[in-house]
Amino acid sequence: MSGRKNLFDIILKKGAGMKKLLILILFVVCLFAKVNINKATIKELDSLNGIGYKKAEAIIEYRKTHSFKKIEDIMKVRGIGKKTFEKIKDEIEVKDNN
Fold first, then answer.
1. What is the rounded average pLDDT of the residues 7-15?
2. Distance from CA of residue 46 to its chain's centroid?
3. Where are the domains of the chain?
């Protein structure tokens, strides 16, 4: 093993300032992370701009018989049209359903 310290060792030794920095970095990463509409939970879907609990339920119901191949496919879900899609298109992604 090399003599390099891992990030967590450095954070533990540097104290609260480094811990706060790590928390901030993790927050920013999560803030800009996209939601995979093929795997997202109802809570994750509900957090999207313009998607409430009912639309999140509709997405999950749609997923039971269909798989999203591209983000535009979300407009096939009842209640989600172009206007809603425009609000969420930068927040969603499609990854394999496997």
1. 60
2. 11
3. 1-33, 35-93
* pLDDT tens per residue, range 19-75: 677 676 666 655 667 999 999 999 999 989 999 999 999 999 999 999 999 999 999
> How far does the chain reach from its first CA to its final CA, in angstroms?
35
Supply the DSSP string of the chain, one letter for each residue: --SPPPHHHHHHHH-HHHHHHHHHHHHHHHHHPPEETTT--HHHHHTSTT--HHHHHHHHHHHTT---SSGGGGGGSTT--HHHHHHHTTTEE-----
CA 48 – CA 84 distance, rounded (Å): 10
- Does domain 35-93 correspond to CATH entry 2.40.160.20? no
